[in-house]
Amino acid sequence: MPPSVKREAEDAATNARPPKRSKMDLFDDIVVVRVGPSEVTFKIHKGLLCHASEYFKAALTGSFKEAADGVLILRDEDPEVFRRFNLWLYNTKDFLDDGESNKDLEWATLIELWMFGQKRMMAKLQDNSLDAMILKHQQSGSSPTRLMRYVWENTESSAPLRQFLATLFATRVDLKLYLGNEWYGRYRSEQVVMDIALAQYRRRGSPPQSIDLWQERDRWHVGI
Question: Which residues, listed in sequence order, are joined to residue 42 by a DSSP beta bridge?
Fold first, then answer.
């Protein structure tokens, strides 16, 4: 190909590409998101929502009513979970209010944030919420014993959240107490127990406390 023709082709390809958006473009129009049965109102930059989620991008830039009105209604979502999501959206790293640490976050909120990320196509949100779970456990020593059945009933068998929680319980929880106490029975299922046992089997030969959950967190991340 002659150099002049090649340059023309490269110039045409360059001109055909959509212009890159600057970071300031993310802080453009404001949209209203009404969350929960009582429709708690959040005002958020449209560009941030669209950048974070293909779901929100489709809803707010397509031919849907939401795009025309600039109003999105999420009645099935928890306002507290969405509030934490809103914090994360602007902080880009955590879900914390001023003066909080990860141990102050509720297990239920972190788990719902992971599920919200799955539902709304936000792998980064899922990964950051799982990281926050590890930090919460490290800072508080607690585990979501009352939420295991709920997680298993609302995720697929291959869900990284299941794999992480099974490993957490296999390496950090007193299983004699957890499995032997009838009170915990209502919060677990046969599949929960089987997955914990499988995680324990896979770690055979390694002292439980030698497993560094933080160093291994990429194993349970969704994002590539």
Answer: 33
HSE, side-chain direction, 13 A CA sphere, residue 60: 24
Token couple for 1: 């190909």
Burial of 169 (0-12, 13-18, 19+ CB in 10 A): buried
Q: Please, are residues 45 and 70 in contact by the beta-carbon 8 Å criterion?
A: no
Q: Are 25 and 63 in contact (CB under 8 A)?
A: no
Per the CB < 8 A criterion, the answer to whether 129 and 96 are in contact is no
**Count of C-beta atoms within a 10 Å radius of residue 214:** 10
Task: Characterize 28-46 residue by residue with b for buried, 16 or more Cβ atoms within 10 angstroms of its Cβ, and e for exposed.
Answer: eeebebbbbeeebebebbb
108-122: per-residue pLDDT in tens? 999 999 999 999 999
Two tokens, residue 59: 């809803």
Between the alpha carbon of residue 160 and those of residues 39, 154, 155, 221, the distances in Å are 31, 13, 9, 7
Q: Is the pLDDT of residue 32 over 70?
A: yes
Name the CA radius of gyration of the chain, rounded: 22
